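Illustration 12: histidine kinase.
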Amino acid sequence: MFGWLKNYMPRGIYARAALILVMPIVFLQLLVSVVFIQRHFDGVTRLMTSAMNIELRFLIDTANAAETADAALLAVRQLGDPLEIETELPADQVLDADIKPFEDLTGSMVIETLREGVPSLITVSLADRRRVLLWAETRHGPMEISFRRQRVSASNPHQLLVIMVVLGGIMTAVAYFFLRNQLRPIKRMARAATDYGKGRITPFTPTGAVEVRAAGTAFLDMRNRLERQAQSRTMMLSGVSHDLRSPLTRMRLGLSMIDEKEAAPLLRDVDDMERLLNAFLDFARSDAGNVAEKVRPSEIADLVLADALRMDQDVTLLPMQGPDDPVSMRPLAVRRALDNLIGNALRYGTKAQIGISVTDRAVRFTVEDNGPGIPPDRYEEALSPFVRLDPARNQDKGSGVGLGLSIVADIARSHGGVLRLGESASLGGLKAELVLAK
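Figure caption equivalent — predicted structure in token form:
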């Protein structure tokens, strides 16, 4: 029902906290101002103006009782001096309409009460905040009457409203200061979680309220548990690889002592087993890698290109898009990922291209080839470990266990990014995009 409000709500937690603080205060001030203050000042103004109407009617009746205009002026001035009312009869000029400033909150009540209590009233002017000026009809012509504004209305409610707004602002600022101290641990925990998703370990100590501390402690426990699991996987596969290398070495040594033709098939089996072990070890180490550091994306691409050219591979580097500023990443892991993508491209094709694109939020490495590609409906399957897409990629051109793209995807996820597959527009084969969050 109120889903449309989400488009207008602030995104940040500080802005939402400020909105939660400000809205009740503003609503309360409006309620008090309109319902209580204004009604109270209207009532007081009506009582004070009603009392003033008695004096005004007496002055007008006195002027009407005099025989001449001079006698009327003398009589009303004799009464007006002790009452602190100034009069002029006949008046020099009379306004055609009442004057009430827009910001005068009690002016309407003053004019309304004066007209109810003084039937001969002509017009009223409240242009001067300190005095009330009005004109009344008498038998000797219009009479101008002036008296202090304080006699018909209480002190201007603007002062009270200003005090309420100022105090409300001060209390909001104080409340926001204390609330910010409660929100700061949540921001730090969110930053630590974001950095961990990008492969960086940020020091974090749970602080704040009990619930926030509990969430921070749970996050630390989860992060430590994931780190232990990654280390255990790496150590386990490393140990298995180390333990199997010795028997394989002995088998290779034993095969070298028999007839070469008879030993050839067995030697190929031993080579395949060694490649399998290396693939398992690379997969285990894909999210361990080296420590993150500031590196220019072009430096990593240049190193990968130099290795490919040294091996006489047909690999080219496209012009870089975006600024070549240092970016925090694990250079050895990213280089391993690009090596896997290039090896995968050249295994099924004859040519590969490397592209780099840098934006404010991510670094994108692309590797394209001219091979047969992968059907779009099998992109997700191709990123799964131990999957070999025989119909799409000719396995006669290379051997493997289906871990190449999985290793690259793990490295991308450890940098807070993703590995995307698509079709190369320039070469017609597979296009792999390694996206790393900055």
